[in-house]
Amino acid sequence: MSLAPPIYPRVACVRVPNFQVEVCLHENRRLDNHPLAVAESNLDSAEILAVNTKAADSGLFAGLTVAQGHTVSPRLKIQVRNVDTEIEQSNDLYKKLQGLSPFVEEAETGLFYLDAAGLGFLYKDDRTFAGEIVSTLKPSGYPIMLGIAGNKFVARVAAEVITDDCFSIVSYNQEADFLKPLPIKHLRLSQEIMSRMDDLGLKTIGQLASIPANEMTRRFGSQGAALAKLARGDDTAFFDPNEPTESVSDTVWLTPPIYQQTIVIAQVEQMLAPLLEQLSRFSQGCSTIDVTLFLDDKNLHTIPVSVEQPTLSVTVFTRQLQLLMERLKLSAPIEGIRVTIPQIAALRAEQLPLNDGIPAGVAPLNDLPDNHTITVPVAHDTFLPEQRFTFSTPLKKYKALTQDKTPMNRRCVYALGTIGGLRLFQPPRAIEVTEDHRKPITVGYINRLEVAGPWELSGGWWSERFDRLYWEVQSANCRKYLIFLDRLTSQWFVQGVFD
Asked: What is the pTM of this model?
């Protein structure tokens, strides 16, 4: 039996350079024939936010006023920024990217991060994935710059230094070598820090990486320690995918009005199915729907139907709705029904679920075209979460890898939340944690946390020793993580995310 290679962290950064200008050009390409600047208004005192290449060649740059811009370039065209259009265009790109990876973060308008790890079943390698991204976004008409690397920072830099091609790929464990010759401007430092770097004669990221971390901390404080990590290609920032908030709904009017609950439930089922199908195209789901009943006496009655975690199952919602309607007394017949999904949630299919009840075995599989390699998850009876599943290639078509059908019922002791809702990172990802007596205070850039724990998990003296202290942490946006301190190395890791 041959095991699939381990899944290393891989992140793709997609950016539309000079996005504010590109949005204006998207509406009118003839503007690109003139020096063009985007400003908050046409007033002479308004600040220029972005300029096109012709304007930059004329000596214009962001930060000048409109009056100063006309002085530098009398032919300058001023376009007033349209924030709504920028958001709309960025959202269109975001939705297209969600069809390629279930884990997408919109860092700012025109800048996106995609989790590229664990997608080997869909894309043969990073270059194939990059080509798919480019071909998907090309019809939008926007120029695309794409970088793929082991973390968000290096991927962003890779997307900034592209020259001939529209994408750049940094191989695993080559982040430091890639960054070494690049100028320190890619670190996006403040003007004050840049001046101090210049005084020290530091021009490249490699020069910065050669300075010991304690010296960077002494000179620049906590920011220096963070810069030292970035310069070595070590970015431990959380990958924080967007949780879409836009609602979707459908309404139907009934002739004649009805009382029967069975007809209402059947109608809701018929309306909800295409709404969930629409979400499934972008790896999204929901945990709540609102069923609004329009009564013949002009009253409204809204029934919120909630389930424990995001799903795409129509049956789960209709069963819950049936229970709620059994206790419902209406003042008049129903003449209209509206089904609304008020909150959309991303379904993260890249990560493996930690499910105690999965039997060790393989379902029959069919051959796939285009020489795809089929891998299947195989459960293992072990203590460490990340070792409880491996991806394996079937030994023979229609043949199970093992005949052992005994489910693993060992109770997990390293979390308070429902383990069935935990999606694992494979392997666990190193994170930056500020602690107080081994209790996490801040995680990455998140400093508003609710914390539960700790739970101890240790053993392995018979093979490879492990000693961990687990905590559940919940951020202000209600995303809950399972993290642990490896007490053997004093390093923190994130084990997974709870649904």
From this structure: 0.52
